[in-house]
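Page 47, continued from p. 46.
Same chain as before, 349 aa.
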Amino acid sequence: MEPSKPSLEPQTVMEAAAKLRTLLLEVKKVIVGQDLMLERILVALLARGHILLEGVPGLAKTLAIRTTAQAIGASFKRIQFTPDLVPADLVGTRIYNPKEARFEVELGPIFANLILADEINRAPAKIQSALLEAMQERQVTIGHETFRLPDPFLVLATQNPIESEGTYFLPEAQVDRFMFKVWLDYPAFYEEMTVVERVSSQFEPVKEVLSADELRALQAMADQVHVHQAVTEYAVRLVRATRDPGEVGLGPLKKYISYGASPRGSVNLIVGAKALAIVRGREYVLPEDVRDLAPEVLRHRLILSYEALADEVRLEELLQKLIAATPLPKVHIGDPYRDTRQALENPSA
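Result:
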């Protein structure tokens, strides 16, 4: 039996990549530098994944998310997380209507395509549990009723790593729901010069270059990107190495890891790599796509041990060692179905 051909045409994918480049250029009218963050936001949009941005204040985290929402013409809500926030402020509540003598539901700000959860670690556990249902199930429950959230729906959260007063640790179950955790660094010298020059003048208005319907079409296209079995095996080996470094010849590092990444890490590596392939203009995933996404997918899923803290082992250095020790597979690019076809044509080989 002949395997089915790839359903995506290269020309279609190139046109999609051109649309995404146009979107990126529109966002860059306002945002200077931060190329990694902007690319990961695009990938998260295509892969239907939530993203956590962490960096010191003033690195344009909030501005980047707001500008992206303007450029794709999607509904956007910004929610400032504070210690006194209650779930009703997020998802909505039931209000008694004395004229009708019945309760009515008032939906909260979470009913939007893009949600900016600003300073997410400042809200207590009740708020995080309400947000967790929205992130995982894409629905909220108010009283005895369940309401579906808009499609597409993505949570883009920010947190400040400097201040600890008035903040809460995010539950591990919730952190695991974020596809990416992106760490932002200070801009380079000339990038910061450009920031100062732009702020001192008027920003060029951002135009809508992509509709919500077009975004849904691009998401469906990302679902069809071909993934070779060897690439999937590479993603799984990479995630398993965070649980047992001995599988990639780094047994002595096991004492520094309390918990590795869950299978959700393997899933997000592949789903994210499919979206990244569209961004890069390909209808198939390369092992390099998985490797490039690995730091953002795995860093928040890896929990270091007390021994690692005592020996001053840095998470990023440990993660880079695991990535470097996991060999990249060799995948034939010209025909992603070649290996399958040859196996079917010559079973004894």
